[in-house]
Amino acid sequence: MHGFLNLNKPAGFTSHDCVAKVRRLLQMKRVGHAGTLDPAAIGVLPIALGKATRLLQFLRQDKAYRATVRLGVSTTTDDLEGEVLLAHPVAALDLTTVETALQQFQGTIQQVPPNYSAIQVKGKRLYDLARAGEPIEVKSRAVQVFSLEVLDWRSGDFPELDLAIACGPGTYIRSIARDLGTVLKTGGALAALTRTSSSGFDLADSLTLEALEAQQEQGLFQPIEPVEALRHLSAISLSATIARRWCQGQRITIYPTADDRWESVEDGETGKHKDADSTQVYAVDPLQQPLRVHHEDGRFLGIGKPTDTEVGIILLSQMVFDGDEQTAN
Question: Is 275 an active-site residue?
């Protein structure tokens, strides 16, 4: 069983807890996850099964959330799970003021991760340092917030704001809640968080642990095929001969075509790749992007890296997913 599981993580479970549970349910050793979720958060947690664990690094990096921010409160963990540091009613706060403040949290922003987070500093997790009472100095880092939309506003002594957030990797929603409270001079903390999409997986298509267990008991569970999770990558199809050589780690020559595709140079061909349009303009540098590598019969073989050399562009093996004897036939 090799592929992905789109898990709907329940509250109270760490991401590691979910991996351990899936291992037991599917009776598998090789299980991993992408994009850690805090125990209190719920929603999409991509799980890799078997050889697909080696593909986690190639998944899409964007994520989306529904978040509830409570204003007038600050805590040690930047969410309502931590010790309250400040609680001051801000009934006069209005949505217009909040919306104006939110504008500075879109685009590329500088963000300091929460003290209680899994980031490592000098080989130690921040949450371990925080729990031990050790001094913590975390540098800010650039993250991307693609969109930030107000879904609902509930006024009161401690008003709450529901947000839809689409962001890049490494973005902490708890930090947005904390920093919004700082800008407003009210304090702010994350009250609830649901991840609605991650790495190309959506909440609407996710499975709960209970549903996974039921499907497994009935013999109905089928993992998501690796290629379905890698559709965002460009692909190249190799003939049987070239595919065998690539799976064996040999260098093969490839070239980009004028219609944004890649092709390989077959044995005996000369000069064809030199005729490729060298003036072709790509939205993203194709040499910086990995490729899905397929056998001409459609089978997914693995991930390759186009690399420019003095003799042309060659396709190196980054990960061979299916290199068994069938490839050689």
Answer: no
